[in-house]
Write a structure and sequence with these properties.
alpha/beta, 23% strand, 494 residues, heptose-1-phosphate adenylyltransferase activity, Rossmann fold, 6-stranded parallel beta sheet, UDP-N-acetylmuramoyl-L-alanine:D-glutamate ligase, kinase, elongated, 9-stranded mixed beta sheet, Bifunctional protein HldE, 2 domains, 38% helix
Amino acid sequence: MATKRHSYPSILSKFSDLTVLVVGDFMLDRFVYGAVKRVSPEAPIPILNFNGDELMLGGAANVVSNVAALGAKVIPISVIGDDDAGTQLCTLLKAANVDQSHLISSNGRSTTRKTRFVAQQQLFRFDEEVIQVLNDADRKALVAAFSTAITSADIVVLSDYGKGVLSDGVAASLIDVCKAAAIPVIVDPKGADYSIYRGATAVTPNRLELHVATGLPTSSDEEIVAAARLLCQQCSFDFVVATRSEEGMSIVDADTSVHVPTTAREVFDVSGAGDTVIAAFSLAFAAEGEREVATEIANVAAGIVVGKRGTAQTSRDELLSNLTFGWRDHAREVLDVTAAANLSAAWKHEGLRVGFTNGCFDILHVGHASQLADARSHCDRLIVGLNTDASVKRNKGPTRPINSELDRASMLLALKAVDAVVLFDEDTPLNVIRSVLPDVLVKGGDYTVDTVVGADVVISNGGRVHISPTVGGYSTTATLRKMSSTSPEKRNAQ
């Protein structure tokens, strides 16, 4: 893929100028958390000891939540029940500062509520729902609300969960309105008959849904392409974005195909990951118009949320940091101060403790490795500040450094303890510390807390300073002295 990393900030910066209409089946997700310590004597089932519960926006409402979290304006349009679940759903939307003026509350509908029981993983799900198409009055009210809102839209998302809001020709009516207004419409589909979405800009089925809709195998890249092209031909889609779980995503049109590999990430909960995909893809597509770039951005966004609990979202800053640095190695490249600050903020957003230490690290030795390992043991992610060549010369003299700043950075990044390296040109790392604001500031044993540069900044921000024990007998100066004493010139002189 030819995506340039420097284009990501430009694309994501446009999100705040975009308006997205989200139409579909709005649901309420409830998560009940607890611990399982024994099996019931009444039946072979686990007993969940209740620790608490949490309400979240679900279904198409989770797409709304994802769009809002990414910084865009979102207009939710749906028919929900005039019931407790509907009231709770509106309360959550209000808390997210989302406009609810186009939501229609109807006595004739029931708001779907899904309750998931979770210990270390989901144990059981309990659904409360009535699947039914819209009555004539609710249908007319929905189309009217949509036709009014379309004038302010940059893109439309139809999120179909098969509960009835988009059934019985409603999706087709909305797509017609979009085509007349020349507004792209992206559909998260449901069921086997995709002709109900005919004329949409794109659909985003997963691998199984693509197989069900076409009857074709969808295991390999070639099979995905063949099935997606059949859909484009049969339903007049511009392209298909197929999500493939651990294998990433594929974007296919009549002439081209691109396969985006997954972003490696520990999976905690896949609830709502498809909602994140369509929200991030739609925003990036509306901002840039490049399908391949939008697919890559959506792929990374999904990789973030599956590492979180519940129907989670990602912020624009968190997404940008992970687009720039990648999940697999986080920051396996040399950073500037701004990039290091963004990365630190993203890690903190995940609930991770960020550590910071610094040095010249001219010739790595056992003492360095030991101190870095100790530093990493006190945090979840360790950023190392590295003096530039010019800074080392000022501090150590004209013959130093022995190794260039990029070579020194590469050696540090090869260590398991180091998660990121940031270069600084000043004599001290104070500016970096002020920008990164680590939770833990680490220095070697020859320092005390009151002599550590930046200690006051970290402590006043709620962090702490850790003095790492020094391994005796190791230093760069001693290493250079030993090398000099064993050189051929020295031996010949003797």
